[in-house]
Amino acid sequence: MEIGEKLYNEAVKLVNERYPLGWGGAAAIRTETGRIITSISPDVKNDALALCMEVGSYLEAQKYNEKVTHSLCVSRESESSKFKILTPCGVCQERLVYWGGDVLAAVSNLDQEVIFKTLRELQPYHWLGAYGQNL
After folding, report:
1. Which positions are tagged coiled coil (predicted)?
2. Residue-level pLDDT at 131
3. What is the number of domains present in the chain?
4. What is the pLDDT of residue 71?
5. Which CATH number is 35's domain given?
6. What is the residue-wise DSSP string for 24-91?
């Protein structure tokens, strides 16, 4: 099974377990050792405290001191809706920069295929360039 399919399946499995009814979303990442880590966004009472679905996985990768190689995020509107692949938001892209411009992130597309793009492709004009550094 290819990496994209495996990450997609793990994220969907977590959504179906954690959110059997209604909206659901989850992330799955792969590290350089092949470890797959999944996470959800925490439930909060105050929206100002919300975090993206991927953050828990990124923190776990840091805990294990492992480089993230792939990141994928999915959501659905209800238990009967199709899943959508979500490109990482700008903040999560910045979080992924920690591991370099070659990190592969799944991107949104109408066909809902698992398509990965490097951070370098997602951010060709990243601010690090102003300091003579490559992403």
Report:
1. none
2. 95
3. 1
4. 98
5. 3.40.140.10
6. EEEEEEEETTS-EEEE-PPP-SSGGG---TTHHHHHHHHHTT--EEEEEEEEESSTTSPPEE-PPPHH
